[in-house]
Amino acid sequence: MIEHPAQHGRRATYLVPAVCWLLSVGLLAASLGLNQADPSAARGVPEFGDAAWWGAIAVLTAQAVVLGVWRGHPRATVLAVAAAMPALQWLGEAVGAGLIVVIVATYRVVLARPVRRLAPTLLGAGALVAVGVAAAEIRSGGEGWTVVIAGALQAVAAVGLPFVLASVVGARQDAVAAVARTVEAQGRERDALVRVAVERERTAMARELHDIAAHHLSGIAVMSAAVGRQIDVDPEGAKRAVAQVREQSTAMLRDLRNLVVLLRDTEDPPDPDGPVRMETLAGIADLVAQARASGLEVDLETSGPVDEVAASGVIGPLAQLAAYRVVQEALANAARHAHGARCTVRIDVRADDHVELRVRNTAPGPGEALTDHDPGYGLVGMQERAELTGATLQYGPTLDGGWQVSLAIPTTPTEELR
């Protein structure tokens, strides 16, 4: 039979009061036995069957009932069970039988309530205990300061000691709870960092895939259109265009393979043809040549020793890859959206603190118009790359109806590299 949690809770609620009642009655019975063996050992204890005996049993029972029934009102419980102590004065030196429930109730209230709010309750309970014990001492024949001291000591024992114990236990529970909350917060923070890292990786993957596919597929689309026009009137030209389509397809597959290898985070590429190529400023010349071969009218202008700057380390590999991808995306956009436009790629490395790249295309050629298209992720990817490398990106239309993209990449002085 499976026990319902509510039944288990009720059983646990009444178990402690029942145990306290048994201990209290047992202590009273032991005091009676001790008094019968030696009347001087436990003075003032009533005889079994006397009215005071049964009255004491009734009071001890009431204490246990209050402890179980008033569990949700710990402060009232402490005062109620402590108020029973003056009623137990007829037990004489056996009055300590009523302190067991007082100790348990005090322990509970300290654990359940802020300590600073319990001073009136604890002082009241201590006073009731002291009065009850002092009255019992007087009934047993005590007098003078002995009565006062006995009442004070019993009050400290019944209220002060459980207060200290419960304070220590409560402080430890608070410390354990604080540690648990800290661990939970750290776990949430770690999960958040993981989610951010995953989103960054997804964004980087999407950006790389967009740049690679957009560039090559734009060239393939342009050359495929040329094939459609040339296949009847210029078969040889159509064959050359098909060969260029094949070259672009092969290049796209190579770039995708390189991207997959980088994402695998392995030192040895799976293809034995060679290591993964990291695009640099020097590779922009090949990029322009590929665009020109695909049919795009594009010129390359350089100012300063581009190859030497690319190899010197004043621009990091990530910044050089960003520059390559920005030029690649700008040329792809020109081929895709401004047919017949003439493009100019300019690389200027003469400045001491930055390298400037500029991709500019004119308005579409005669009879051509800007291609309508939905907003894509090309410009977003450019901006993300610039922010990642500390570069400055600017883009927008030109006065002659064209479009211009400018990228300024900060450089590191060669003295710092040494």
From TrEMBL:
What domain of life does the native source organism fall in?
Bacteria
Reaction equation(s) it catalyzes: ATP + protein L-histidine = ADP + protein N-phospho-L-histidine
UniProt keywords (A-Z) are: ATP-binding, Kinase, Membrane, Nucleotide-binding, Phosphoprotein, Transferase, Transmembrane, Transmembrane helix, Two-component regulatory system
Its EC number is 2.7.13.3
* Alphabetical list of Gene3D superfamilies matching this protein: 1.20.5.1930, Histidine kinase-like ATPase, C-terminal domain
SUPFAM superfamilies in the record, alphabetically? ATPase domain of HSP90 chaperone/DNA topoisomerase II/histidine kinase
Tell me which CDD domains the record gives: HATPase_UhpB-NarQ-NarX-like
> Membrane among the record's keywords?
yes
Q: Which residues cross the membrane?
A: 12-32, 90-112, 118-138, 145-165
Domain named Signal transduction histidine kinase subgroup 3 dimerisation and phosphoacceptor is located at 201-267
Q: Name one Pfam family in it.
A: HATPase_c
Q: Which residues form the Histidine kinase/HSP90-like ATPase domain?
A: 322-412
Q: What is this protein called?
A: histidine kinase
The species this protein belongs to is Cellulomonas fengjieae
